[in-house]
Amino acid sequence: MKLTVDEILARVNDSEQERANYKVAAQVWESMWTLQLYSKPARTVLEQEGREQVVLPTPYNIVHLARRLISSEPRIEVPAEDAEEDDDEAAERRQRWLSAFWQRTNREQRRDIIADMAWQVLVRGRCVVEIKWVEEQLPKRLQGKRLPVLVRTLDPLNVGVKNGPLYTEYAFHKYRQERMLAAQRYPNLKKSSTWRENDDRFAGLAGKANEVEVIDFWYSDGEGGVWNAVVVDGIFAKPSKKTDYPDIPIIEGYGDSSPLEDEEHKSLSILAPIKDLWPYQCRLASQVGTGLLYYFWPAILVSNEAGQEVPDLDIRPGKTTPVPMGTKVEMIRGDVNVPLAQTMLTQVDAHIQQSTFPGVMYGQAPGQMSAGYGVSILADQARGRIAQFRENLESTLEHANELILGLVESNASEKGVKVWGRGAADGSLYHEALTPKHIQGQWHNLVNLTPQITTDDAQKQTLGLRMVEKGIISKRTFRDRIMSMLFPADEQERIEMEKALESPQMQPKVLLRAIQSYFPDSWEEKIKGTPFEQVAMMDEDAPPGMPGGMQPGMPPGMAGPPG
Length: 563
Known about the structure:
single chain; alpha+beta; five-stranded antiparallel beta sheet; three-stranded antiparallel beta sheet; 20 helices; extended
């Protein structure tokens, strides 16, 4: 199913027309985050017009707090292949590999990809991630040293996605690039007569005038095949060709989504409810600031009944300025109704908090809000406000993980793809290699982005400990469901091992091993005349496989007194 250039451009134009309103709204939300409200600088307005121009950082603070509630370290779980088997080595390998993959991607990209996606869904209402197999495009010196899978975020304003009822029909990334770089990346352009005819037209141009429009277009043929084409200034830089991709590598995720067909309201930013309220809040604060400006520095009118010239008055503490007789000085001071303005500001701020987050979540001085259930309830409300954003972001990451596993299965060699990462529970480093035989079409995964916020869990944990003591729940349930921190997978084995080493039967031998390790050359002198000398003698006299002189069938602790 090969598409022509005209067919591709027609689909791109249709998608851009449908998304035109969304682009306008997204640009407004982004300008709110960058605090771009007025067209003139505040200093210019103050000097020329004598007005204060106040811009409150409310949108930036809202987005910053929301990003703190979304973790950039995903907790990935991979189900077992067989529904009847809980312990699946291949599923465990895929899970460890995916966790390390995102850590390695962040290091190679030198930025946090998931944090960038969170910013996009919060500010622009959508996020876009692109996943491609780039092993053949890497320099040979980097092949095998860098990940063969490239994951990066794209600007949602430059992307178009057409979703069907069963699958994504087509998606494209449209951007501008220098003409020289486009020709370097796509050598086929120089073979086109149209491209060569434009060489003279672009000669001598610089900046944006020397840029060309690039469209990376991906589409499905309806039979399970994924095709790709690249169009540069209306010329095929890469004709339509069927690929071995399991799915279209451009994935779009939503923010505050709604079941509407309108592109503008299908997915909203967290700043959408205060789009008109925040400018009014800034104007109201500017009016109060301007009123205070004239209150503290009133206008001074000077007149003389005899018509004599009055010198300029230099008013400062301790300064005396003589003036002619008959001179009158009148001060015009603005009467600012601060309580009325404060009441209006309070109402506006209350509605902004109802639309986003309560003010206590930004931090309060000690004594204003006691720790306990109050802060915990507000923290739960804040997490509930961004629950839709977080769930949609988790779904996008799950789709991305499926595509990553599919690319490894279809393109990796028998040696697989090796990565290394750090365990989230115990913090230890580990290496993991994933081969196609470890995948075999099993792409399922679950992603959880735990909110990064300090909450008061003392009440909940205390209640959980009481339930463990009463035998209502198990210790494992307490660790997995009530505690907010992550534990290693073998935490139960570690606990049992520590109990065994701390037992009275094992303590003498454990302490003896510590002395031998700390004093490898003089430990025999150190333990002379102590009970540890007898423990060492028992170890030397014990037959192989029977420590401490124990006889076969004798229970532990019944080997008799030392010596």
